[in-house]
Amino acid sequence: MAEKKDLSALYEFDEAVGNEFPGGLICGTDEAGRGPLAGDVFAAAVILKKGAVIDGLNDSKKLTEKKRDLLFDEIKEKSEAWCIATASVDEIEKINILNAAMLAMKRAVEGLGVKPSLVMADGNKCPDIEDTEVRSVVKGDALSASIAAASVLAKVARDRYMAEMAEKYPGYAFEKHKGYGTKLHYQMIDEHGPSEIHRMSFLKKYYDKKRFG
User: Fold this and answer.
1) What is the pTM of this model?
2) What is the CATH number of domain 2-160?
3) Is the separation of the CB atoms in 17 and 120 below 8 Å?
4) 57: closest CA among 138, 123, 149, 120?
5) What is the pLDDT of residues 171-192, one digit of tens each?
6) Ramachandran angles phi, psi of 27, nearest 5°
7) What is the DSSP string of 167-178?
8) What is the pLDDT of residue 2?
9) How would DSSP label each residue in the chain?
10) How are strands ordered across the β-sheet holding 133-137?
11) Pick from 204, 199, 206, 207: which is nearest to 95 by CA?
12) pLDDT band at residue 1, thresholds of 50, 70 and 90?
């Protein structure tokens, strides 16, 4: 019973925020892929339909891959608007991963096709979106239904992208570790060298450690 109560609080949070903007659209946004050594960073923005309830919705990190896949289409169906966007590896290297994640969130919100009254961004930083109020919500993916929904869309989209990269760059097992710094991933890097989608700034410490001990 406690778990059900916790999950209902996600919708209560959004409802309370929505009461500040009568008749307005409240958007949640989150990113996926700040930590990996390879691949683009993804973000999603979601405006849930008023009164929409998605059974089992939660912070994507607390869900199994199978559950996230099941929720992916339902979230889109029960959204007033949604958008998934990315920032490339080149952009990550040029402006750093934090700024790239903010850029991906900005792109996701601007790609909604409708203008939200408020954007709630997961974390303690938020993207700068012209003429739009944006609030950072620490641990927002565990507090807000719309941010949780965005976290699921971003995570599933990125995992599917990494599965595609596994086919494009065989030998790195991207489909298994999704680009994160696992033992297997480092073994593949040692064996094959970095690929075109590796974030070299993320690998610098690893190579420095190998070089200098």
Assistant:
1) 0.94
2) 3.30.420.10
3) yes
4) 149
5) 999 999 999 999 999 999 999 9
6) -110, 140
7) HHSTTS-HHHHT
8) 38
9) -HHHHHHHHHHHHHHHHHTTSTT--EEEEEEE-SS-SBS-EEEEEEEEPTT---TT---GGGS-HHHHHHHHHHHHHTEEEEEEEEE-HHHHHHH-HHHHHHHHHHHHHHTSSS--SEEEEESS-----TT-EEEEETTGGGT-HHHHHHHHHHHHHHHHHHHHHHHHSTTS-HHHHTT---HHHHHHHHHH---TTB-HHHHHHHHHHHHH-
10) 79-87, 41-48, 26-32, 118-122, 133-137
11) 199
12) very low
**pLDDT confidence bin for 89, thresholds 50/70/90:** very high
Q: How far apart are CA 32 and CA 178, in angstroms?
A: 11
* Structure tokens that stand for 80 in this block: 């007033």
